[in-house]
Amino acid sequence: xxxxxxxFPGSLDDVDAARAVRxxxxxxxxxxHAEHDxxxxxxxxxxxxxxxxxxxxxxxxxxxxxxxxxxxxxARSGLPVLGICNGFQVLCEAGLLxxxxxxxxxxxxxxxxxxxxxERADTAWTHAYAxxxxxxxxxxxxxxxxxxxxxxxxxxxxxxRVAVRYVGGNxxxxxxxxxxxxxxxxxxxxxxxHPEHAxxxxxxxxxxxxxxxxxVLKAVVSA
Amino acid sequence: MDxxxxxxxxxxxxxxxxxxxxRLGHTQVTGVRQGKHFVLDVEGTPxxxxxxxxxxxxxxxxxxxDVELHLPGA
Lengths: 223, 74
Known about the structure:
- Chain A: Part of the FGAM synthase complex composed of 1 PurL, 1 PurQ and 2 PurS subunits.
- The complex is a heterodimer.
- Chain A has a single domain, classed as 3-Layer(aba) Sandwich (Rossmann fold).
- Chain A has 5 helices and 11 strands, in the order E-H-E-E-H-E-H-E-E-E-E-H-E-E-E-H.
- Chain B has one domain: 2-Layer Sandwich (Mth169, Chain: A).
- Chain B is elongated.
- At the A-B interface, loops of A face helix 1 of B.
């Protein structure tokens, strides 16, 4: 099982994401944003960081990179894609996921261990969890406030597209405590918190994040 | 080109500026919305439709932002 991790100029968490992939039992494959080469991977992770320095809007320039255009195409035919933090911002900017991430309502960068509820345990990236399961993983962002037009929010809730929700306090003012959303087919998931930072007892607040990476192994095999 | 957050999207930066203005005694200001201003050098006569497309595909995120185009001499 080969899972690609895309590196952009300004990515920070690509190495941690690759490590999480390895701990989950898959082979991480380094992908470079400027190349039109997905290297025949079975799934793709867009990691956290500050691609292009967050210039213009967080994720905006990375979303127009050559490889992300390929990811958009491949996702439309079912390639599992996970966007974490800046990767989530990129997926929204690329139009693969609905909504947008904006400046935190309190204007502070917020870095803490965060409790989350898995709302959808049937996506490619979350079915290792039980529906409604609560997990703790780090959250760290300055522009993580999820927003969408009121009508779009209603539609997303109605379609069950909210994959992960903040519980025990909303770290950034996200509408309806939305921490992550999924595509209609459940293959593309984006979230602001960092499951890849919670995969080992030594360095994380828990190992709760590993489930995102073990989920996709089964998703690819059963696809 | 001016890119501003849609009216329904809250603007915490603008609110922080409003708070600072209030502390400086400028209490007549009742609202601040912060945006971005782009100056584009264009070959030939600027084409409104082409510029609108540029705005929508990169300079603005239509999910959260509106664009105001200001052509020279217009």
